[in-house]
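S.,

As promised, the magnesium ion run. Input:
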Amino acid sequence: MNASSPPARAPLMALDAALDQLLARVEPLTAAESVATFEADGRVLAEDLVSVLHVPPQDNSSMDGYAVRLADVPEKGVVLPVSQRIAAGHAAEALRPGTCARIFTGAPMPAGADAVVMQEDTREVGGNLHAVHIDAVPAPGQWVRRAGEDVTRGAVVLPRGHRLTPAALGLAASLGRAQLPVLRRPRVALFSTGDELVMPGEIAPQDMQPGAIYNSNRFFLRVLLQRLGCEVSDLGIVPDRRDLTLAALKTAADHHDLILTSGGVSVGEEDHIKPAVQQLGSLDLWQIAMKPGKPFACGTVRRDAGAGADAAQPCHFIGLPGNPVSSFVTFLLLVRPFLLRLQGAPVPVLQPVLLPAHFDLPRADKRREFLRVRRNTAGGLDLFPNQSSGVLTSVVWGDGLVDNPAGGTIAHGDAVAYLSFADLLA
Ligand code: AMP
Ligand code: MG
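Predicted complex:
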């Protein structure tokens, strides 16, 4: 190679290696706060959640029927007087031997009773409730929910780092928790770069200048961040100018954990992200062997001394490619794990399901490809016809991605690795 030949292209980096390197940079947040259980959906537990009680707190009936002592029902057809009536939420007395107790679902079992006979297996004697025929011999413990069968006292019900879901909030409430200790939300500054970008609502379609396009990335990136529990400062559109890019980065670094941008990470002279981040901190520009989503930047931006306690640590920087599908897919595969790790939550391992391709992909790509597909009613996958990284329709039409290895062709009927958006967005 002589001195005048263009610089060699950076070798492509494997996606897994990029993810490992990205995650290795993360120091999880430690600051915690207490939030109402009602408000804790999607937040990450800052402490183990330990139960101070049994759930359910006592043995109770899972049926409407009659609580009995097994010794009193040696065979079917016995008649037992009804000695008490126990409704849910009311206390029971010990069951007198030789009698049964009318009992309702959720009502506490009377002491001495071993089982519940469901009311369908009983008949009232003479049309009143003073005595019943027991028409089935119950098994020990039948229709009884045992104290502590869901949660035992002292158990770690949910570990620190657990990302709370609606069901987990219910479980926490069943332990009596009205407040939960959670990690503080990551603070993320978001901005889009590109002189071509205009905002819906600000410029009407008929007034758009030649070359203008609407900023679509801003809309999905902001909500993807919010769904991951982040506090988002949306800095809007930053024009393709070095001074304005520098100013936006500087302002954002002080009060955020991460600056996330889209666009401007290619190496054209209108791509100002790289030199600006380099000037204010450090930047790695990766060419990831994935399609869509090759250019990806990550690094740090120094904070001002005025940033208080945070000043010692630089702010993270991640620059996503501008093409909407590239931005979307790299967010799911790289930024999402980064933000989960930042919150101290486990990073989910991709768990593809093997499904038959109901399409052909005769031409292999050199890069690992994430194809937008949709499950069909025949149990296979259909491919969106236009896989271009600018075609956002493919992501909305699709319900997931096929993770197709580099160099892989696909023939109709082949089993392929399907990743659902439901999982990738969970
Ligand atoms: P860039 O990464 O800046 O070179 O942009 C790559 C392509 O993505 C260009 O066609 C841009 O117009 C487009 N693009 C960049 N940012 C956005 C955005 N926020 N919304 C929609 N398209 C974008
Ligand atoms: Mg651009």
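The chain has four domains: 15-29+184-342, 32-55+149-183, 60-145, 353-424. The pocket of magnesium ion (ligand 2) is lined by residues 193-194, 263-264, 322 (CB under 6 Å).

- D.
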